[in-house]
Design goal:
The complex is a heterodimer.
Chain A: H1 3-18, H2 27-32, H3 35-41, H4 43-57, H5 63-72, E1 79-81, E2 83-84, E3 93-98, E4 107-114, E5 117-124, E6 129-132, E7 143-148, H6 161-193, E8 195-196, E9 199-200, H7 205-231, H8 234-258, H9 270-280, H10 287-300
Parallel strand pairs in A: 1-4
Antiparallel strand pairs in A: 2-3, 3-7, 4-5, 6-7, 8-9
Helix pairs in contact in A: 1-4, 3-4, 4-6, 5-6, 6-7, 6-8, 6-9, 7-8, 8-9, 8-10
Chain B: H1 10-23, H2 40-56, H3 75-87, H4 94-109, H5 111-123, E1 128-131, E2 147-151, E3 154-165, E4 172-178, E5 187-193, E6 199-204, E7 213-223, E8 228-229, H6 235-267, H7 274-302, H8 311-333, H9 336-339, H10 343-355, H11 365-376
Parallel strand pairs in B: 1-4
Antiparallel strand pairs in B: 2-3, 3-7, 4-5, 5-8, 6-7
Helix pairs in contact in B: 1-3, 3-6, 4-5, 4-6, 6-7, 6-8, 7-8, 8-10, 8-11
The chains are: A alpha+beta, B alpha+beta.
Chain lengths: ~300, ~375
């Protein structure tokens, strides 16, 4: 096994242990894992493996936030980077989610859209209304912060915001793909074992093709992540997230159907994966960005070199 | 360009080709992406001029072994040239698409035959077509009935082939015939001259309005034993190897062309409404997936790896994305798609109809999905197929 292969395999094993049973990976433990060194030396392996294993195990951590915060120079022990829901401008209401418990941090950083781009506004956690997110997936242990953005003190637009969103989108794509791959795994096992009309339902073409399509969508998204890592450009990273969301949509539709009535019960694990996929789809919505990015990429862009 | 393959990289080839095309500005205007002719025959004629010039200048000789007139190096070099050609605003010559679905397997399975005949095909002096499907053997290819019977030193071929792309303009066909018993073990592949005695080619007008493909009739057509591609009885293996390139390099070539289709349509649509912009963005994401997937497959094939049944993922991505891109062109043209009679309207209509075939030729979408389900995901084998 190559060195890189060894690092990946051992990190994967560690991540599987850490996330066993879908537990929360606390910031302290993530940092103790050597996160800072890992992400600077092997960014692709670190982000890919941890995000995918987190998704697969329905674990929770501040991983995606950390990937972004690192570029912005945010100290995660004191500050939490919030993910704005919709567009926040100065003078409007802040409404954002945190991938962490708001109690653990003293300041919350909220991206605020201004004329010049995105500015980062810092709020004392105490000045915002902070509450845990229950919603569709309480297991994610997110927080929600709301308050008056008029109170914000912005500096100047952060030039590194596009790069930050690109890195976050790519990490999030991997987490979603982890969720998708687990859904597909359990669906494949199910249709091999579930018999009707005297045969495994996985031998029916209608069932086979649903799962084949889900696999194709997941592989398509994985393919986009490879180009995104090669280019690390905003358009392809955003495309990776869009493709992962598409794969998640396919998994939700097709896996749900092949589980039949069993998949509609609370007892069955399927709904927990669907809940997580729908929750993750709230972050870093690629739609608006992609439209403007793509139109220039389509017409004038030089494609990322993928042949080397 | 004649630098030794060892010194040539994809990026060097890209730069050199771009420079060469700029230096020959105006010489191949008919081969520009936006100048495609309505008839496939005219398109072929202008394409072949560019194909020959690129061969003579050395660009398309990289990635082919010296035994067939190439300059050596890996197939990745071919991939770089194809894409760069499109990025510079040209079409990939039509015959180079079929070359990629026949040439690589020929080199491996029929080295002598390849040295003798493939150089002319690569340079664009000859065009070859596939002869696989039959009226009663489409998705169920292994049931084909066209027969090659031993006769003297060689064989005599009788039967019918159908859906051979570019057949009206081809001089030879790489065809599958039954030399043994039923099933895939009884098949052999031959390179047959289309002007041989007893061989008749009839064009089939496609829904696009173009003579996209032909049917070929063989009536006791003599074929030399030296025209066997691979051993007698190895036809299925040759065909499967050939299909890998069709799902690898051909997909790569098509993704380059599909990017150009999308760009062309966006450029010619002055004001994209948000819905249309979203559609373009979604399609670009799918194209990025296709490009990324086929790049990896091309690299694997070039490294001598067998991508295995997962290559069907590429084929599904190619065929569905091809349709998505042409659907975008249809949508963005609005009423003119149906009402217009300008050359672009006609071309987009023809391409749209052509794209409907993408989920049928080279193994129908349903076959690909079943391969993925059974051989990649490990689902139990289906009963009805």
């Amino acid at each position: 096994m190559s060195d890189a292969g060894f690092v990946e395999a051992s990190l994967r094993a560690t991540a599987q242990e850490l996330f066993a049973g879908g537990t929360e990976l606390e910031l302290g433990r993530l940092l103790a894992l050597g996160w800072d060194d890992l992400v600077s030396e092997e960014p692709r392996t670190a982000v890919t493996v941890l995000a995918e294993e987190q998704g697969r195990a329905l674990g929770s951590s501040r991983l995606v936030e950390l990937v972004m915060g690192r570029i912005l120079g945010i100290n995660p022990k004191r500050h939490a980077l919030a993910f704005a829901l919709g567009t926040t401008t100065c003078g409007t209401e802040v409404d954002a989610v945190l991938l962490a418990d708001a109690d653990a941090v003293s300041e919350v950083i909220v991206p605020i859209r201004s004329e010049g781009g995105i500015e980062l506004a810092s709020f004392e956690a105490a000045t915002l209304r902070c509450e845990p997110v229950v919603g569709i997936d309480p297991a994610a242990q997110w927080g929600r912060v709301r308050g008056d953005a008029g109170l914000c003190t912005t500096s100047s637009p952060t030039l590194r915001w596009p790069e930050t969103v690109a890195a976050g989108s790519l990490a999030l794509a991997h987490e979603l793909l982890g969720v998708v791959s687990h859904m597909l795994d359990i669906a494949v096992e199910h249709v091999k074992e579930r018999h009707q009309f005297g045969v495994a339902i996985g031998s029916f073409q209608a069932v086979q093709h649903r799962l084949a399509d889900t696999f194709v969508q997941a592989e398509a998204a994985r393919a986009v992540t490879r180009t995104a890592w090669a280019g690390q450009d905003r358009a392809t990273c955003t495309a990776a997230l869009a493709a992962a969301r598409r794969a998640a949509d396919a998994a939700i539709e097709h896996c749900h159907q092949v589980f039949g009535a069993m998949g509609c019960t609370w007892e069955h694990p399927l709904h927990r994966f669907i809940r997580r996929a729908l929750l993750l789809s709230l972050l870093l919505d690629p739609d608006e960005d992609l439209r403007s990015l793509v139109l220039s990429a389509v017409v004038t862009g030089t494609p990322v070199e993928v042949l080397v | 360009m004649t630098a030794s393959a060892a010194e040539v990289t994809p990026s060097l080839l890209r730069t050199e080709l771009t420079g060469w095309l700029a230096a020959h500005d105006g010489a191949f205007d008919g081969a520009r992406f936006s100048a495609e002719s309505i008839t496939i025959e005219e398109t072929m004629a202008t394409d072949l001029e560019l194909q020959r010039a690129m061969w003579d200048a050395g660009f398309t000789r990289y990635g082919w072994p010296e035994s067939v007139g190439g300059l050596g190096g890996t197939e990745v070099l071919r991939a770089a040239v194809y894409e760069q050609l499109v990025l510079a605003g040209y079409r990939i010559p039509l015959a180079m698409l079929t070359v990629e679905t026949l040439g690589p397997a020929m080199v491996v399975f029929a080295p002598e035959l390849s040295s003798r005949y493939l150089p002319a095909c690569l340079r664009g002096d000859e065009v070859w077509c596939q002869g696989f499907s039959e009226p009663e053997a489409g998705s169920d290819l292994a049931s084909l009935r066209c027969r090659a019977t031993p006769q003297g030193d060689g064989y005599e071929v009788s039967g019918q082939k159908v859906w051979s792309s570019l057949g009206t303009m081809s001089q030879r066909t790489a065809m599958l015939a039954r030399t043994g018993g039923p099933g895939h073990r009884g098949l052999s592949m031959f390179l047959v001259d289309l002007d041989a005695p007893g061989c008749e080619v009839r064009p089939i007008r496609a829904s696009s309005g173009r003579d996209e493909f032909v049917e070929i009739f063989f009536d006791e057509t003599p074929v030399g034993a030296d025209r066997l591609v691979g051993e007698e009885g190895a036809g299925w293996n040759v065909a499967m190897s050939l299909l890998q390139w069709e799902r690898g390099m051909y997909a790569w070539q098509r993704q380059a062309m599909l990017h150009a289709h999308l760009a062309e349509e966006v450029r010619s649509t002055p004001d994209l409404d948000p819905g249309a912009a979203r559609l373009v963005a979604d399609t670009w994401v799918r194209l990025t997936a296709l490009r990324s997937a086929s790049a990896r497959t091309v690299k694997r094939l070039a490294a001598g790896e067998n991508p295995g049944p997962e290559i069907s993922v590429d084929k599904v991505l190619l065929s569905t994305t091809e349709q998505a891109v042409l659907d975008v062109r249809r949508r963005l043209r609005g009423a003119e798609f149906a009402l217009g009679d300008t050359r672009p309207d006609e071309l987009v209509r023809a391409e749209w109809f052509y794209s409907r075939m993408a989920t049928i030729y080279g193994g129908a979408l349903e076959i690909q999905r079943s391969i993925i389900a059974e051989r990649v995901l490990g689902l139990p084998r289906g009963v009805g197929r």
